[in-house]
Write a structure and sequence with these properties.
Layout: H1 6-12, E1 24-26, H2 36-40, E2 48-51, E3 54-57, E4 77-79
Antiparallel strand pairs: 1-4, 2-3
Bound molecules: iron/sulfur cluster (2 copies).
Length: 102
Amino acid sequence: MAAGTRDERIESHERNPKWKNHPLRIEMSECINCDACLRHCPEQFGAIFNHGIDVIIVPELCSGCDKCLPVCPVDCIYPDPDWKPAAEDWWKHPGNPDDPYH
Ligand code: SF4
Ligand code: SF4
């Protein structure tokens, strides 16, 4: 099915419709850019990226598995029930040579 694999989600910019949990978001005003969350996001999801000086979660790639939550030292990762599609320039990271999950 479409969006069933990470590559398909990157291609289509769609979330897997089977995922029940909301995606998470990083509150940038609280984040200390330690990258701990990025290293703990499972590679089949691979949703967290360095984006300039920000650390971002691409909601279409985030399953809401919560693996990133306990490792954040400042608890600045929150469920995002009102999530909006990722900004177009966020998509330049997944699937490209700088993709940390490849
Ligand atoms: S909830 Fe899971 S998939 Fe989403 S960013 Fe955190 S670790 Fe990655
Ligand atoms: S673990 Fe928390 S503080 Fe560290 S980069 Fe991720 S969101 Fe920011």
